[in-house]
Amino acid sequence: MERDTTICNHSGQPCNINDEMNLLFDISQTLIRSQDVSSTLSPILKMVCTHLNSDSSFLAILNRQRSQIVVGESYGLSPAQESKGKFKVGEGVIGRVVELARPVVIENLGDSKFFSNKMNQLTNRGANDTFICVPIFQEEQVVGTLSTTMSFSPKNNYESEKRLLSIIGTMLVQAVKTKRTQMEEIEKLRAENLGLKQTSSKAKNFSSIIGNSSKMKDVFNQVSLVAKTQSTVLIRGESGIGKEMIADSIHFSSDRAEKPFIKVNCSAIPEALIESELFGHERGAFTGADSRRKGRFELADGGTIFLDEIGDLPMSTQVKLLRVIQERTFERLGGTETLKTDVRFVCATNRNLEELMNTGEFREDLFYRINVFPLFIPALRERKNDIPLLVDHFIQKYNKQNNASIHRITQRAMDRLMMYSWPGNVRELENTIERACIMAHDNVIHSYSLPTTLQIEENIGEHKKDGLEETISSIEKQVIQKALTENKGSIRRTSEQLKISERKLGLRLSKYNIKASDYKNKKNTPI
Ligand SMILES: Nc1ncnc2c1ncn2[C@@H]1O[C@H](COP(=O)(O)OP(=O)(O)OP(=O)(O)O)[C@@H](O)[C@H]1O
Predict the structure, then answer these.
(1) Atom of ligand 1 nearest to the CA of 429
(2) Organism's domain of life (predicted)?
(3) Candidates 3.30.460.10, 3.40.50.300, 1.20.1270.10, 3.30.420.40; correct CATH number of 206-376?
(4) Predicted confidence (pLDDT) per residue in 2-42, tens digit
(5) How far apart are CA 324 and CA 341, in angstroms?
(6) What CATH number does the domain located at 2-180 have?
């Protein structure tokens, strides 16, 4: 019949258009029926091999961050062959297909100078193998390749196979996209895990948490007591005080240290996404959920989950979290299967949960569930004797980071650090030292390398008795003198730096009886 005209001859075997239509129909059905599109890839590759009578078939996926093409799924390749399937863009046949964005057919594979045989795909037929590789596009960008190895037939020009693979590649775009996201997520988790493992030994003996004040010693004692238990811990304290570091120590000192440690910043995840992040979702649970995804509770199974900023969790999610804490069970969004998780909870907040309960923004029952072992980290201003040690620690840290050798901080600078009230706590202190390290030109941190906020605070302390007007004038005079010194007496540059007009600056100079020319050769002195 006309319709059944032979259009291809894979391995010299006749093939009709109905076979191709059937293959494409089967592939589309497999894709439609599946809950998780990425799990369809292996059976589809098998169908391709059966239809083309080929030995192996595989998908390689382009990793966007690394510009590396990695075999993501295969049929007919051993795990060892698959693991060798990593190519740079431009490397070997696969790398060239990605680079050129064009299909490639290599007949007589053994003779090709482009074919690296990195994955040992050459069969016993050797030179009698043919390799076909086509690019897979998404919005005109190559996202991966689909390849197959089959026996060489001199009668075949492989045009129909190339065309068929290109059509199948187009059908698989969504699955490739999902697989790529999964591969990138796994890579990210591996990297995070590696980072955590590298810090784990330090965290175990708290050596990265600095503090020898009695208040911090008390915190360390409590941490070492509670870490060994399975109890839920609620870490409280102002922002930048080290709550996350304490959570790290609890996990890495516990018997779950080798198991996953999953962190969730409840305030950083948009309200619409928080539940799918925590509980995961099934395919089709909401628009955009094109595959099943595990949530953080599933990922944390056997380990610890750290719920940072728990005070910012929406009320609707609080109810569901309560159930997980009470029963350790939950369902994925859009799913009916009840899943169990063996997870230890560590929570943190800088918000006043008691106040939030009064205003109806935080559930009381949840509060009592998480407040099993409350741990308060005192603000830095309440343990100022930790400051010198922290300063030392951060100088060493930034010396290492910047390959510098700052070895001293002047007494005056240290006095300023001790007088300041540190509303941003240790994070603010760390930022201050990092900046001062960059500004230290003679390997010494001077008081003038510190931000003006610290300097003004000290001056305010000194001038409190003078009254408001006099204090402001005194500070204004000092700021102008400092700017004049830095700008070697130049009125134009000084006014630019202070963001006032030259006329205004002139008025201030006469008010304070300052002569700009006196500052031409003045050394930079602290205000
Ligand atoms: N005792 C400490 N020793 C060394 N570094 C510390 C200490 N406390 C805090 N830091 C540093 O201060 C910064 C802030 O710490 P962390 O993120 O743990 O604070 P946090 O209380 O969780 O803050 P937030 O409430 O804003 O999330 C980090 O860079 C951390 O390394």
Answers:
(1) 12
(2) Bacteria
(3) 3.40.50.300
(4) 333 344 545 455 556 788 889 999 999 888 887 667 678 88
(5) 8
(6) 3.30.450.40
